[in-house]
Amino acid sequence: MEGRYANFSETFRKHWYKYAKGSITTAEMWSSVFGDYGREIDYSAAKALDREVVLKHRVNQRVLRMLERSRKKGRKTFLVTNTAYEYLNEIEKRHHLRFSEFFTGIIAPYLTGRMKPDERVFSMLIDECGVEPEGILYLDDSQKNVEAARNLGIDARVYRYLG
Length: 163
Description:
Number of strands: 4
CATH superfamily of the largest domain: HAD superfamily/HAD-like
Number of helices: 8
């Protein structure tokens, strides 16, 4: 983006972090984002933006099958995400999923007050898994998050969804 909205991603991220940690509501998040540009947004428009964000999430069926096989073999699987609680619920509804069927646990900012790539998030993962860091396979699409996990000895790899 150019001009007035050139830093929109940075502005959005700043308010998203507060929202994902549960410090503000979705309406407050969107109001703050638009407020930074001297604009107002009403609640119905904020909800429409939320729906658009959720609609962009795709579920990789291959990954779900891999998670099912891992759980059947008795392996622990964790969802480590920066996604907000309301968004996770919407993703479950939209895709007719129950994350509890695929994951032993969830490590998310609304539960921990921390977001990736904060190394404390990966320390929590190590504690929850109950194994040595090198016994954990961690996949993420962000190199920063992978590096943070590796700093603690976790076998972390960049994963790209190829559709």
